[in-house]
Design brief:
Chain lengths: ~210, ~190, ~240
């Protein structure tokens, strides 16, 4: 058990270290989310409700996440390093978990910029929304890592990843927007927890089949 | 066994037994399936027909492919440290250091591998391959990119590990002829 | 000798006896079911004659779910045993599911037009759920088309099929809670007090639809198997 945890820690640490060194994914995500919010301001006619603006925030989060996910296995792809990881004795699901943790960290960092920007551009946020965003991050990172590995096997990976991801992201948006604007956010937050649990377990268990041939 | 990729039949009707401790050279022109054979033995994919049995766990296999399998943004030492962790090696730092020294990369140990030359990358890949003292070596063109000094270092390393089983793909069989016990020629 | 050709494809249902019998059963059940629905079952008090489309729409929807479930089951078998024939079976089942799903959306849309004068409404939970699933399984096909054939594609498709079947209840729940705050649900047809005549007619229609799906599944699967065998033969003799 502790060997597994050690593997996961080593891999997650590696991903964060790589990002710190290369600095290509996270700055792009930050810039993207702020640009998206700016566009949304112009896309929403004046007099739009706060609810519509909140909805737009969730759109920005989903698409910024997509941007980050397309880079999920970029480092491994460039040098074919994934073979090295797959050949090692570590459990393949540990590769998934390490990568998911790394991706969650990137999403959280992106939102640390996005949420204050949103509060500045549009209207103040509730803690329910922040909680919902945190929960959504886990779910998005979980399925996103798996889907990125699936898309990596195809000929059109940049096109395929959004197609695979967006239908699965619909429940996340429902849960997230609901939690942000409902008078009773508990059921929506509970739903997000359910979503995270179910899809994280499924992704964890099936990653092995997706990364080996 | 046989292996095909979609329409292409790469290996056909291959019947091969490698005894423990054997050192088998695999020769053949480009595209004859040497790389495919090694990747099959490493377990990177399964044969499409027939059976393959490899009596070595993943922790006991040392694989050298065409790619060095290292992260460009990490230093040599960091790369080996990562593999050391994944292979659950005790004293991984010491081992990594020792190997880097043996392959003449000690001075470059804290440099990002993205700055390495082709020869240095090959040496680092060899460090990675030998890091966990594998029982089964699967080497695909190990002398590729090595200068004479590098080639000598590799020969020395192989001499140190005389008891391993090895399957080596090469188009220069003379270099390893002295060490080999058998030769498989693919067409 | 490459044994994949002969053994892997041929196992499983063959066309000889099963399918004609199934087709006959499907035909009988559907004709009988529709007869019951349109001539025997009473008219709905609220909706009148237009409610009859319920006998078509809901069985199709349930059949689509069944197809997706069947496809996911075969996908699970593929991952579990590694036998390659399950890939074709899973793919065919999901193909059937998408066809029936599309029909669900069409019949649902017709029902919406008849009942409320609009071709689409977000308040109809079943329709919204099917839209999500339709998008998901269309992506499944994109996945298959853009990945080269081989064990990789089979595994990836199987995993995605499993995600699909998990998505069904999750989306159902999502659309339901969305209804409470975002898009108020206009109409629920989970009418608990269905007169028994309606129930009988409905069950017969449902059995008919399932038989129809099973028949088409067998036919298409056999067709795909023959295709694959032909391809193998061509490669062998090339």
């Amino acid at each position: 058990m502790s060997a597994y945890a050690a593997d996961v820690a080593a891999l997650a640490r590696k991903d964060i270290l790589l990002e710190v060194r290369s600095r290509d994914t996270l700055p792009a995500m930050l810039l993207f989310v702020v640009s998206a919010l700016t566009i949304f301001h112009f896309a929403l006619p004046s007099g739009s409700s706060e609810r519509a603006e909140t909805g737009m925030l969730w759109m920005a989060i989903v698409f910024t996440a997509l941007l980050g996910l397309t880079r999920a296995f970029a480092a491994e792809r460039e040098e074919g390093v994934l073979d090295g990881l797959v050949l090692s004795p570590c459990d393949r699901s540990a590769i998934w978990l390490g990568k998911t943790i790394g991706m969650t960290v990137f999403l959280v960092l992106a939102e640390i910029v996005a949420l204050p920007a949103f509060a500045l551009f549009f209207h103040p946020l509730s803690w329910d929304l922040v909680a919902a965003v945190a929960l959504a991050d886990i779910g998005i990172a979980s399925i996103g890592t798996l889907l990125a590995a699936i898309a990596a096997a195809s000929r059109a990976r940049e096109l395929l990843l959004p197609l695979l991801f967006l239908p699965l992201a619909i429940p996340v948006v429902i849960g997230g927007v609901g939690a942000s604007i409902a008078s009773d956010p508990a059921s929506f937050l509970g739903f997000l927890i359910l979503y995270d649990g179910v899809f994280a377990i499924l992704s964890w268990a099936s990653f092995e089949y997706v990364v080996t041939e | 066994m046989s292996k095909r990729f979609g329409e292409k039949l790469v290996l056909d009707d291959l019947d091969l037994v490698v005894p423990r401790g054997g050192f088998v050279l695999v020769t053949g022109p480009n595209g004859s399936g040497k790389t495919t054979l090694l990747r099959l033995c490493a377990g990177l994919f399964a044969p499409t027909g027939g059976e393959l049995e490899v009596e070595a766990s993943r922790a006991a296999i040392g694989f050298l492919g065409h790619e060095p399998l290292v992260y460009r943004e990490l230093t040599a030492l960091e790369n080996l440290d990562l593999y050391g962790r994944l292979y659950r090696l005790p004293e991984r730092r010491e081992r990594a250091g020792a190997l880097l020294e043996r392959f003449g990369l000690w001075r470059a140990r804290n440099e990002r591998t993205g700055t390495f030359s082709r020869g240095m990358l090959q040496r680092l890949a060899l460090c990675r391959t030998f890091l966990h003292d594998p029982d089964l070596l699967l080497l695909d063109e190990p002398f590729d990119g090595l200068d004479t000094e590098g080639a000598e270092l590799l020969q020395a390393e192989l001499a140190e590990r005389a008891s391993v089983t090895a399957l080596v793909a090469t188009h220069d069989p003379e270099a390893l002829a002295a060490r080999s016990t058998a030769c498989l020629a693919l067409a | 000798m490459n044994t994949w050709l002969l053994s892997e494809h041929r196992r499983g249902p063959s066309l000889r006896f099963g399918a004609p019998l199934l087709a006959a059963a499907a035909f009988a059940l559907l004709v009988g079911g529709f007869a019951l629905a349109f001539y025997w079952a009473p008219e709905d008090a609220d909706q009148g004659f237009s409610q009859k489309i319920f006998y078509v729409h809901v069985p199709i929807a349930l059949t689509a779910y069944a197809c997706f479930g069947w496809g996911a089951w075969k996908a699970l078998r593929l991952l579990w045993t590694g036998e390659r024939r399950y890939d074709l079976e899973s793919y065919t089942a999901i193909h059937m599911g998408v066809i029936f799903g599309l029909l669900t959306l069409v019949t649902g849309s017709i029902w919406a037009k008849i009942s409320w004068g609009q071709w689409w409404t977000w308040g109809e939970r079943q329709l919204v759920l099917f839209l999500i699933l339709f998008l998901f399984y269309s992506s499944y096909f994109m996945l298959r088309y853009s990945t080269d054939p081989g064990p990789r594609r089979e595994r990836n498709s199987a995993v995605y099929a499993l995600f699909g079947v998990v998505l069904i209840p999750v989306s159902f729940l999502a659309v339901r809670i969305a209804g409470t705050i975002l898009h108020p649900t206009i109409f629920t047809h989970e009418g608990a007090d269905l007169p028994w005549e309606m129930l009988v007619a409905f069950i017969v229609c449902l059995a008919g639809m399932l038989s129809l799906a099973a028949t088409l599944y067998r036919v298409e699967l056999t067709g795909k198997r023959i295709d694959a065998s032909l391809r193998e033969l061509r490669e062998l003799f090339a």
